[in-house]
Specification:
mainly alpha
Length: 211
Amino acid sequence: MDFKILLEIVLLGIALSMDAFAVSVTDGLTYTDINKKKSFFIAGVFGVMQALMPLIGFWLVEIIARLVGETGGADAGKIMADIVSWVAFALLLFIGGKMLIEGIKDLKKAPEEKEEKKFSFKEVLYFGFATAIDALGTGVALHSDLSTTTTIWLHVSIIMVITFVISLIGLFLGKQIVKLLKGKFEITAIIGGCILIILAVWIILSHYLGI
């Protein structure tokens, strides 16, 4: 493998990890009990999910192509890419909208009535799935780009490591913003909700406009 191909994989990994970065910033903003162990768990979930989805997309197209031919596999891949983009949009819009509404409501509450948002394993897994599902489309694209099926494993391994590191950076950044806001968690919830809503819109725009 030459340097150019390796650079392309790294750039792909960085591009795919931007969704996870945005959500990890949101987690750092909103979870009040984040520690080192939980940070590594969140980054690990995002990394694994971001690697798993392209792998699933790649092998689904590979299986379909072997069953009905390359044309059928390509058509199925395009349909799947459209569907997963809208699923990711709906999931992130729902989570972001809910977070935004709760943050606005908390602005009107007395300090003693406000509840701090605690770390949730279930929610982290949900976030990981929501941010990575659109990467199924990347797996579809990789199927037509890669010359051998063994190369996909190198791609997803690099994607996983890059996403893990960038997610840790996002969590750190989110926690630093909280310090600047001096623990005003209703504000961080509003910021986090806005980030997720923007991310949802971005996924649709990037899918259809190629940006």
